[in-house]
């Protein structure tokens, strides 16, 4: 099984008080944790990628715990989430897809078995590549007020033989959400959609 070799980790927390409307007393908190890892498959085609996915499962949980702690360490305060990957030029898109289960299930487990699928984005790019990580409500993907994204990236990665794995969490809806649709208070929690 490949070893997980991390070059660096970045933690970002935003506090958003307004987006042009009236300032809110309690800001929306939106955070991301990025881990820059060596890609064990860079530069070659490997048929069986599953060993690395298995190795990433405890790593995903560690990343989710780090992010939750930065946002106050209260699982009940988290309402939105997303994940993503930026794969260096020596890798392929499928290497980023390895993050789906380890990243998504880690957050869902940590947040009390959240029901909604964790939205995702991935792309191949070099140092400085930015990624818009999509965000939805943790229990119902159709809650329109929580449709959001957080742009992430770093200046010196990913290098050609690296992958940047990303987790994002938020404490609520967009700060001035007012576009209708299913409200968080109306979630039935039956299927992860509504």
From TrEMBL:
Q: By its UniProt entry, which Gene3D superfamilies does this protein fall under?
A: BB2672
Mind telling me which InterPro entries this protein's record contains? AA_synth_put, BB2672
Q: What is this protein called?
A: Amino acid synthesis family protein
């Amino acid at each position: 099984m490949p070893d997980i070799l991390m070059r660096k980790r970045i933690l970002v927390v935003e506090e958003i008080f307004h987006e042009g409307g009236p300032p809110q007393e309690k800001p929306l908190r939106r955070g991301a944790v990025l881990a820059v890892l060596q890609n064990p498959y860079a530069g070659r085609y490997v048929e069986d990628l599953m060993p690395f996915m298995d190795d990433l499962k405890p790593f995903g949980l560690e990343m989710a715990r780090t992010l939750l702690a930065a946002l106050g360490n209260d699982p009940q305060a988290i309402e939105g989430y997303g994940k993503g990957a930026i794969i260096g030029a020596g890798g392929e898109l499928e290497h980023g897809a390895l993050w789906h289960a380890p990243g998504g299930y880690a957050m869902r487990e940590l947040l009390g078995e959240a029901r909604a699928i964790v939205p995702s984005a991935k792309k191949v790019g070099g140092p400085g590549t930015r990624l818009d990580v999509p965000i939805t409500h943790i229990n119902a993907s159709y809650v329109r007020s929580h449709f959001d994204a957080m742009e992430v990236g770093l200046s010196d990665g990913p290098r050609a033989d690296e992958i940047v794995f990303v987790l994002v969490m938020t404490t609520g809806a967009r700060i001035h959400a007012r576009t209708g649709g299913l409200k968080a208070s109306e979630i039935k929690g039956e299927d992860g959609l509504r």
